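[Archive record]
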Amino acid sequence: MTNSGNIQPMERVLYEVKKVIVGQDHLLERLVVALLARGHILVEGVPGLAKTMAVKTLSRAIGGEFHRIQFTPDLMPADLIGTRIYNQKTGEFNTSLGPVFTNLLLADEINRAPAKVQSALLEVMQERQVTIGRETYPVPKPFLVMATQNPIESEGTYPLPEAQVDRFMLKVLVGYPSTTEEFVIVERMTGALQDAQRVIDAEQLLALQRQADKVYVDPALIEYSVKLATATRHPEACGLDELSRYISFGASPRASINLIIAGRALAFVRGRDYTLPQDVRDVALDVIRHRLVLSYEALSDNIGSDDILGKLMEAIPMPEVPLREYAGADAIR
C-alpha cells in the first residue's frame, strides 16, 4: 500500500523549493529527510552552490522561522543562545534569547567558531534546549540545524569536535552543477526570480514527522544497519583486512540508529509506508561518512571515508526483505 495522500505535502514542499533551486536534488531530498527524521545536517561544498538559499527557500515552503548565524572566530556563546541583561529600571536581570530559537537554523561556516561556541551549539542540537544562567529554555518545534563548511579553506578555521560531528544525522557533499543546470541557474538568477510559497505549516510538519515514525522497518534492516556500523570498526570481519590501517575509530551506535531513522524517513518521502533495503543503503554514505576517524596513513594514501564505505557496502550484501506491505499498513493504523 502506498501512502500517496500522506506524502503529497512533502512533494509539494520539494516542488516549491525547486522553483528557486536548480539541481541539488540530493541535497534537497536529504533536507526533507532530516526534517522528517528530526535530525541535523552538515553540508560541505565550495561557496556559491546555493546551500544558504536552499535552507531559506525550504523555510518559506514550510512556513517556519529561519535564522542565519555567520560563524566567525570572535563569536561568543551569548551571540548564539542569548544572555541575561541587567535592567537598571527594575533592578532585575532579563533574559534575551538568541537566534537559535527558530525552526530552521543555518550555521554558516560552522568550523570558523572556537570550541566554547561549538559546545553551546552542542546542547541545543542534542537536547533541543539551551541553558542560560540557572534557567533552561526549550527551542521551538520543529527544529533543524543545517551547518555548512568550506572544504577549501583552512585559515581561521577550527576542526569540529568529534562529539559534535556525531550529532549531525547526515553529512551531504555538494558538488558543482552540470552545464545545463548552470545555464538554467544563470537564466533564473538574472531574471525575475519566482519565490517559493508556503504549502504547509509547522503543525502539519509535526504531524508528518509522527507519520514517518510509523513507517514499517523489518528487523532484517536493523541487522543490516548494525552490520554496516560494525564493519567500520572491524573491517577484517568482512574480509577487508587491508582497510584496518586506514580507520582509527569506526562509527558509533548512533550511526546504526540514524541509518534506520533516515532510511525510514526516505521511504516516507518516496511514498511508501514500509522501508526497503535500498532506502537504508541510499542514506548510508550520508549517515556514516563523517563518523569515521581516518588514520594518517589514509590521508597519505589519499583514501577518503567514501572510498572505505564503498568497499564495505560492496562486501555486505543487502538483505532480502519481503514486501510485507500489510505490516506497514497495520503500523500506520
Observations:
- The chain has a mean pLDDT of 82.
